[in-house]
Amino acid sequence: MTTPPLCPILGVHIAAVDMKTALNYIRENLSALRGKYICISNVHTTVMSYEEESYRKVQNGAALALPDGKPLSVVCRKRGFAGADRVTGPDLMQEIFKCSREYGYRHYFYGSTPETLKLLEEKLGETYGLDIAGLESPPFRALTPEEDEAAVERINASGADFVWIGLGAPKQERWMATHEGRVQGLMIGVGAGFDYFAGNIKRAPMWMQKLSLEWFYRLLQDPKRLFKRYLITNTKFLWLIARGK
């Protein structure tokens, strides 16, 4: 299993790939990737990793840290990785969903709320005829060791090939790292991906995505939660990159 080229950005080893390369890598190496995890990395998680060593180790412990944010793929290209392009969580989910019936993939969804999971199950069944092995909304508190072990047993008993984790960053990445080798499917942390496919959140129009304005569209949808993140984190990122970090 040859690892895709890596571009270090603020200490995080970002996979300098595009969607086609990432998808082919996952499909061709799925057996070897079982028990491992993939991070969908953006400016926010990369700056957090720069500032916090333990989280940086989690990001760098992933089988892949994919460049979800457009700025990451742009930096990759400027540093000599011409094939790098944005690989968003929702786009990766969609591409894997589209080929799931052909390859017989089974899916488990861990995170979000029962209401969102119900909508997710309905819409994925209608659109993709997806083989959903299980959906689970964990409580919004730390699980006891017994509860955690029971959750792992449920996931593994489902026979899922892909275990989608929707706990939000940085919680979902830490969860995946803690469960590496215990969960038998390939774990992928997708943040708000559950909400997109459930219909709770709308994606930006394609023209905004192509102009790297999807962050602005999301900001308009949830300004109270995202304003501080985008203002502070994006400014820090630009400053650090300008300094050659």
Automatic annotation (TrEMBL):
<dbReference type="Pfam" id="PF03808">
    <property type="entry name" value="Glyco_tran_WecG"/>
</dbReference>
<protein>
    <submittedName>
        <fullName>WecB/TagA/CpsF family glycosyltransferase</fullName>
    </submittedName>
</protein>
<dbReference type="InterPro" id="IPR004629">
    <property type="entry name" value="WecG_TagA_CpsF"/>
</dbReference>
<keyword id="KW-0328">Glycosyltransferase</keyword>
<keyword id="KW-0808">Transferase</keyword>
